[in-house]
Amino acid sequence: MTTPLIEDNQPPRVRMAPSPTGNLHIGTARTALFNYLFAKHYGGTFVMRSEDTDLERSTKEFEHNILEGLEWLGIVWDEGVTVEGERGEHGPYRQSQRADTYRTYLEQLLKEGKAFYCWHTSDELQAEQQDQVANKEAPRHVCSYRDSQPDEAVKQQAIVRFRNDAKDSVTFHDYVKGDITFKAELLGDFSIAKRLDEALYNFAVVVDDETMRITHVVRGEDHISNTPKQILLQEALGFVRPKYVHLPLILGSDRSKLSKRHGATAIAQYRELGYLPRALFNFIALIGWHPADTQEIMPKELIVEHFSIEAIQQAGAIFDVEKLNWMNGEYIRATGIAELTREARPYLVAAGFVDEQTDEAWLQKVVALEQQRIHKLSEIVEATAFIFSQPQYEPALLIWKKSDEGKTRSALSQLLGIIQGIDASSWNAGGIEAVIMPTAEATGDRGSMLWPLRVALTGRKGSPGPFEIMEVLGKEQTLERLARAQELLLQFS
RNA sequence: GGCCCUAUCGUCUAACGGCUAGGACACCAGGUUCUCAUCCUGGAAAUCGGGGUUCGAUUCCCCGUGGGGCUACCA
């Protein structure tokens, strides 16, 4: 009874249909990503449609934000709306421009008696529902105006409802959840349009998916309960039923549907924080899906290659920022220093540390200093702050735990002497280390010299190694900071 | 309330009736390091409960319980 997901090697046509009533968030991106993966894996077509029928809440800015965010993530589509306009042969792809198409099918249903006008007031509908809830019945509207013939004036105030005479149950196969059955009569005479010129969601979706030749509907499981309504409409209109794939929801830490109160949900926020698009792509793909082997860090191409609907999880999954942080760190470490510097530079510029003219080679060394220490690009600012301004610290910090003030004092003056003798041609991490290490070893406990050196340079308990830092800082700045440390130590005693 | 979905370590998950229930993140301990980070080694940590089916259930069925979604003239 259940047909294969892909029949006769027919490449699928899938769609993503965001409504531009808010910025791109994690959940939307995940649905788009899975549509993309599915389409690419089978060599199909990914269509982007804009469900902007809610004129009150839809804006061009939101649509722009969604499209741009998806592109940034590396999710591309073959057909549909674009920032500039749209492309493809099944348009228009914005529901706000498809009123004529909807009207055609609406009139067909009306003419065939499969839809009718209803002018019950919202008070009446509400009262009906309250009664039903009180009687422990399914809330729905079974309209008494089914066979009435309203005049034009009434029609202008009425909404169009589907005449639901179905007595059987509606069963559809979901390729993640299995067979799902609803009792059709519990759906009532559901609404499909506000008058003739404003189609409502369930109706618009059905018409769009048919006219855009969509073969597979891949969407969040919050749409499962809409599916029987859409199937009833497909049958009334003589449309083909697409195959359904309902994705488990992404949950917040308290297991409810992910929303703003769980923290950052907008893709743009993650972008600002410095999550790399390829890391986010990888991470989101792993929410509710997993490859056959245990490898988790996988580039886009590999994910596309391994993607399969069968491996999609049935239960919702919590969005775990901790694991994202780890993964982003992995990607940061795996990124070439030139590319990483290009990506990190804007953060340093915004912090006022550098500008667009700052020497590229030098900046790469700065970024390299912290490459294995940061988990998101925004952390580069705090991590490298000591490079760009004199460190502030307590003099006591200069003294290593296994050392004392006297040893620290002599270590600093020894260092000053050695460093002054290093000539410009040897001023690099390796060259500096070559002359300092033997002396540090000679003290018997090299930490008694290396620790104060590092603290003098950074003012921090934890930091990169001193030699790399000295190379970045330059000889003059290094000497200045060491001299400053000496002064501080004097004040300390 | 009604309808639907769902249930393995804290989290993401593996084990398509048959091993000491495996991996990853986080956590803890140890090693490496002047320090932090990286890296390496080790550790603690789970099959919601009750009935069935079966020689045998994490796995299949039923009933509970928990969690979630939907319940608009939003999408």
Architecture overview:
By secondary structure, the chain is of the alpha/beta class. The protein is 45% helix and 11% strand. It has 19 helices and 14 strands. The chain has helices at residues 26-41, 60-73, 99-111, 122-134, 152-157, 201-211, 227-237, 267-273, 277-285, 300-306, 321-334, 337-350, 360-370, 379-388, 405-420, 429-442, 447-458, 466-473, 475-492, and strands at 13-16, 45-48, 79-81, 86-87, 115-118, 159-162, 169-174, 178-183, 191-194, 198-199, 216-220, 243-247, 250-251, 317-318. The strands form five sheets. A four-stranded mixed beta sheet has the order 1-2-3-4. Strands 5-6-9-10 form a four-stranded antiparallel beta sheet. A hairpin with a 3-residue loop joins strand 7 and strand 8. Helix 1 (26-41) crosses helix 10 (300-306), helix 12 (337-350) packs across helix 13 and helix 17 crosses helix 19. The mean pLDDT is 95. The protein binds one RNA strand of 75 nucleotides through helix 4, strand 8, strand 9, helix 6 and strand 14.
Features:
493 residues, alpha/beta, 4-stranded mixed beta sheet, 4-stranded antiparallel beta sheet, 19 helices, 45% helix, elongated, RNA-binding
**Biggest sheet details:** 4 strands, mixed
Strand order of the largest sheet: 1-2-3-4
Shape: elongated
Low-confidence stretches: none
Q: Label the structural class.
A: alpha/beta
What value does the Rg take, in angstroms? 32 Å
Strand portion, in percent?
5-15%
Rounded mean pLDDT is 95
> How many H/I helices?
19
